[in-house]
Amino acid sequence: MTIESIEIKAKDDYILKGKFFPCENENKKNPPVIAIHPAFGIKCGFYSPLAKFLSKENHVFIFDYRGIGESGDPKLVHDGMHSWATLDMVALHNYIEKRFPESDLHIIGHSGGAWLLGFIPPTKNLKSLVFICMPNGYFNSFSFPNNIRLYLTWKFWIPRIVKKNGILGNSKFYSGAPLPGNIALDWAASGLKKKFIEDDSFQPNGKFIKDYTVPTLAFTFSDDQVCDAKSTFSMLAKFSNLKKTHRHIHPKEIDEAEIGHYGFLKPSQKKKLWIDLLKWFNQF
What is the dotted CATH code of the domain comprising 4-137+207-282? Predict the structure, then answer.
């Protein structure tokens, strides 16, 4: 298999970088296509092992949002948070549709890469969704004392860091790749709103959440400290019209000491959690 580096032009002419993992099963006609939407501040290369695994039976695409990884300098990106959906995700979906017009599309959204879908309507060839550790960013959707910590992060720490540096860089409050300033500020602002991305003060806002109706497999983990169970359950409830299959997993159930927010993506899960994904996609 030859992994292909790709460039995708968004409608504002911004160039996004990504990778294409072609289906290894050459006898499969019109293989399904899987698009992986990264979490905030996570470079697409982190998803390469999973993409390669899933390419046994599917075409798989990964990409970096504008200002992340190979998709440009975060200091040069001035768009708001919604642009990662309304411009970048849409560009990826359009690219896939043009390249594989007869194939079904499946989307894996990790963390914020899942709820960002609320900013855009479902693409017409969408067959299913997989949500991994999707939080509700509203601070009071978290259990105590995480809600207090998150309130301080959204209200004070992120705005202060962005004001000082122009971007949200790595610190004790944030451990991902540097985020463009306005995207970080929008993220923080949405976390102070009870309706989160659906709040009327945001234009555009996440008004399409209830338009998604496809079968969805959602994973949550009991030891996820980034988004605890209370938060993840409340965000799943917002996608109220999905046909959801929800797996809430305690690490000991699969003989793991911990999984957390990122453990699903580790290659050690090939024979545990990843095999469930192949079974999920194979049913369609």
Answer: 3.40.50.1820
